[in-house]
Fold this sequence. Notes:
The protein is of the alpha+beta class. It has two domains: 2-176 and 319-327, Ribosomal Protein S5, domain 2; 180-316, Alpha-Beta Plaits. Helices cover 38% and strands 23% of the residues. It has eleven helices and 13 strands. Strands 1, 2, 3, 4, 5, 6, 7, 12 and 13 form a nine-stranded mixed β-sheet that branches. α3 (106-121) crosses α4 (128-142) and α8 packs antiparallel against α9 (240-253). It is globular, with a radius of gyration of 20 Å. It starts with a strand and ends in a 10-residue tail after the last strand.
Amino acid sequence: xxxxxxxxxxxxxxxxxxxxxxxxxxxxxxxxxxIDKYCYISARFLPPxxxxxxxxxxxxxETVSSISEILHPAVREGxxxxxxxxxxxxxxxxxxxxxxxxxxxxxxxxxxxxIRALMALRxxxxxxxxxALKAIELEQNILKENVGSQDQVAAAYGGLxxxxxxxxGSIQVEPVTAPPERIADLEQHLMxxxxxxxxxxxxxxxxxxxxxxxxAAELRQMRLLVDKxxxxxxxxxxxxAFGELLHQTWVLKxxxxxxxxxxxxxxxxxLAREHGALGGKLLGAGSRGFMLFFVPPEKQPALxxxxxxxxxxxxxxxxxxxxxxxxxxxxxxxxxx
Length: 337
């Protein structure tokens, strides 16, 4: 039995420049952090006593005789990608701390955790960078999903990072080396709001990718804000400038495609700004899900009161990335000679 724990992420700056269609021509960068909310994947070889060959438990319970029958696309193609077949049954369980399709990188965290679990099931270890690259390969090239490359890297590595995407296709991860008290101060200024809705981000992402050439000026500005934000974090000035940059990047992002935002999100953002938020953004591709705000601590009670019909989610930064938290050698019945 293997259990992996993989964090979700909060992306601050540079989202959109992490799509290969953009960075292979212009280069890209993002500033993001993982948080202490996780995706858990458990995997084991299924003992031979059961009628079904494979059992997959997520929002559905699947019992099938062949990998090709598995409905969950990442599980089905992930098993094939890593060379599994029907000669031995596999059981996979998924649990998550936060709902899926809400902008916190849940699909990529799932892919990263799944790959780590399946490789560990075969007695193989994998480094963080290779893990991220395999998850990118699975999502972008095998599943053909409209996703960028930041979420897989963030989930695999963990921590607060500046991630650079080079025109030659390589990816560099630079941990933000700010003093601990500076990071703690940033954490205390951030608030995470759950709007109570979820959406399929792939359709919005496809719209953004289709308009990249038309929105090149906006994407270049969003890329420049990444380095400015990193300089603020590693400097000694007021963190308020970080919140103001979040507002700038949200203004730029909402212009990338018509469905990045909607009237409800705009109203929530305006209300937050009226009650002390210096900046913020909708996480993920857009339209619905989690919203992040930068709010001075003394103004946070007023904001919570003004938006008390929504769920505020406390969180801290996370520094480990995807890890194997449980490993037990298979016994002779589940691993026959």
